[in-house]
Amino acid sequence: MTAPLPQQRLAETLAGEHAAIYAYGALGVRLPAAQAAVARRAEAAHRDRRDALLLRLDSDGGNPPAARPAYALPFAVADAAAARRLAVHVEERTAGLWRAALGVTEGPARQLALTGLTESALWAARWRRYSGQAPSTVVFPGRPAG
Amino acid sequence: MSRHHAAAPGTAPAAARPASALPARGAAAAAPRASSPHATLPPATLPPATLPPAEPLPAGPLRCAALPPAAPARTGAPRATAPRATPRRAVLGAVGLAALAGVGGCGLFRDDPAPPHPLAPLLAETDALVAAYGRTMAAQPALAARLEPVHAAHTAHAAALRAAIGAGAGTPAPDAGAAAPGVAALRRAEQAAQRAAAAACLSADGVRATLLGEIAAARATHLEVLP
Asked: Dihedral sign, CA of B175, B157, B153, A101?
């Protein structure tokens, strides 16, 4: 039996949060100390979102996906610049997942999705700023390109 | 669209590829991790604020060209056998009901504009932000480069809201002569607008919730760009 659409979307988002937490572990060690501290705060934010998602999916009788032991990173993280680039990539991807959950949820689940989208947008903007990208903001956070 | 493409070439768009779809590599690839203290984050979603109240329906004249004059109904022959008051009241009441029902296909509110769209207050607030940023950029050229992306975002949001509202979306009010707000005032306006967009997102239907969530998230990022 297929889960209803809101649970499906939230489960996909949870899988993305698992991957984001993994990615921050991999990229944080490549950053200078000050930015590594920022990465730990971002990772903590993703853990909070993950926990909130787990609670939500449990209460909805969903079947939340478990974290995998490891995830393939989209590119090698050889230095600090690549680490920041990966952080931007991770935040843009989770923003997209949360955004996709907005339109199919309502009530507390939509509030969760809005918080997730907003936080990922904020972290993406911060990592763009640390990367020297200007502007650091995007017009429609989470919206797929094109 | 002025969206940034920060991802490396060859990576899939964010929403298109859930992370779990990625093949897992060996667990040995995992780097040892420091414990992550749950630092407090700035609240991303602020307590929902009430939207500015919708404008009341203009009290237009209830004109109806096809409505027959009430006078002829009263000029009927007096009835000698019945008490006078009741038939007259009945006739007048019938005329009144006919007017309400729309005699001759003339609707009661035919001459009135449609009620405001639910997104109209948000559009008006967005137009006001566009104008406010524009004035500040003109008055403080040193800030223009920093504020321009935010100004452009609000302009794009206003266009998207206009498209969502469709026909009947208002045009921005001219603001000639208005004073340029300082950065603190811009920040307050941006905060209020962020709360308004978040509240609108939470109460909107599915299609609009996505756009309103994008706008709310964008405004949260604007607050970090402001000097």
From this structure: positive
Of B6, B33, B202, the CB nearest to A85: B6
A20 is in which domain, residue-wise? 5-130
What is the complex's ipTM, to 2 decimals?
0.96
Instruction: Choose the closest CB to B45 out of A12, A100, A114.
Output: A114
Is the CB of A146 inside 8 Å of chain B's CB atoms? Answer: yes
Q: Does residue A138 lie within any of the structural domains?
A: no
A 48-67: CB under 8 A from B = 48, 65
Domain count along chain A: 1
Sequential DSSP letters for B153-167: HHHHHHHHHHHHH-T
How do residues A98-107 score in pLDDT, each as one tens digit? Answer: 999 999 999 9
Tell me the residue type at B75: T
Beta carbons of A139 and B152 less than 8 Å apart: yes
